[in-house]
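Deliverable D2.4 — example input (C-alpha cells):
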C-alpha cells in the first residue's frame, strides 16, 4: 500500500540558487519540513548550465523554470497542506527565511499512478527514495473533452509508461493530477494540470534527448498540451559539506 497521496511542486525562476542558498535550503529549510505530519520526502532539482537547452518544451511562465522542489505528502493531507503554508511564515518570523527565489508556480496535485522500470528492481512504491541522478519533469494541461483525456490517461497506463520505462536510463515514473479532494489556498490553487516525474539513473541530459521521440507521442492525440518538459539534476547533499 502506497503512503503518498499528493505532492507539493514548487517551480522557481533563475537566477539559479547559489551556494549560500543551497546550503540554507539543504541544511535548514528542507529538514524543517519533516516536522509536518504528512511529509514523506523532500527533494530539490536544478536546471543550470546546459540543462535549459536540453528541454523538450517550454511554454508560458514555466519557460523560465530554474529549480523544482518536490515534497511528497501522505495523510493527513489537509493538515499537511495547511501546516506547510504556515511553516514558512513561522520560520520567517524567527529570521530563518532570509533566502528566497522568485516563485513561478506552487501546486499540490494528487498522486494518480506510480511505475518502476524493470531494471530498477525496486517496487514502484519506493522509486523516489531510490538514489537517482536526476529527473525529467513533464507538466501538461488538458485541452480535450473529458472522454479524450480519459482515453489519453488509459493510453499512458497501458502503453506509454511501460514503453518509457523500458528505455535505458529510466528508473520509474510517478504521475500527479489536479484534485478537488482537499481545500487548497489561493497560492496553491490553479487550473487543471498533470505533472509527471520520470526518475533517471543515467545522465539526465543524454537520457532526456534519447526519450524525446517517445515523450512527444504524449501530445499527438491533442487531449493535452505540454507546458514544460525538461531534465533537472538531483542535488547531492554531501557536495555542500566541502
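Example output (designed residues):
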Amino acid at each position: 500500500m502506497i503512503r503518498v497521496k499528493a505532492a507539493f511542486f514548487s517551480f522557481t525562476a533563475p537566477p539559479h540558487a547559489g551556494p549560500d542558498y543551497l546550503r540554507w535550503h539543504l541544511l535548514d529549510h528542507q529538514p524543517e519540513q519533516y516536522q509536518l505530519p504528512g511529509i514523506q520526502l523532500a527533494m530539490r532539482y536544478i536546471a543550470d548550465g546546459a540543462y535549459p537547452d536540453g528541454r523538450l518544451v517550454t511554454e508560458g511562465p514555466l519557460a523560465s523554470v530554474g529549480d523544482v522542489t518536490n515534497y511528497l505528502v501522505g495523510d493527513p493531507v489537509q493538515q499537511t497542506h495547511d501546516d506547510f503554508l504556515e511553516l514558512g511564515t513561522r520560520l520567517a518570523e524567527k529570521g530563518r527565511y532570509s533566502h528566497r527565489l522568485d516563485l513561478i508556480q506552487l501546486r499540490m496535485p494528487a498522486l494518480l499512478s506510480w511505475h518502476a522500470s524493470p531494471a530498477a528492481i525496486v517496487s514502484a512504491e519506493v522509486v523516489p527514495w531510490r538514489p537517482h541522478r536526476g529527473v525529467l519533469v513533464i507538466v501538461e494541461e488538458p485541452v480535450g473533452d473529458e472522454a479524450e483525456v480519459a482515453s489519453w490517461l488509459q493510453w499512458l497506463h497501458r502503453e506509454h509508461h511501460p514503453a518509457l520505462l523500458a528505455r535505458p536510463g529510466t528508473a520509474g515514473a510517478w504521475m500527479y493530477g489536479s484534485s478537488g479532494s482537499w481545500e487548497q489556498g489561493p497560492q496553491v490553487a490553479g487550473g487543471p494540470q498533470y505533472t509527471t516525474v520520470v526518475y533517471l539513473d543515467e545522465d539526465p541530459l543524454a537520457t532526456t534527448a534519447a526519450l524525446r521521440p517517445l515523450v512527444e507521442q504524449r501530445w499527438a492525440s491533442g487531449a493535452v498540451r505540454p507546458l514544460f518538459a525538461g531534465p533537472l539534476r538531483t542535488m547531492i547533499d554531501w557536495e555542500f559539506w566541502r
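The helical segments are 19-32, 77-93, 146-165, 204-216.
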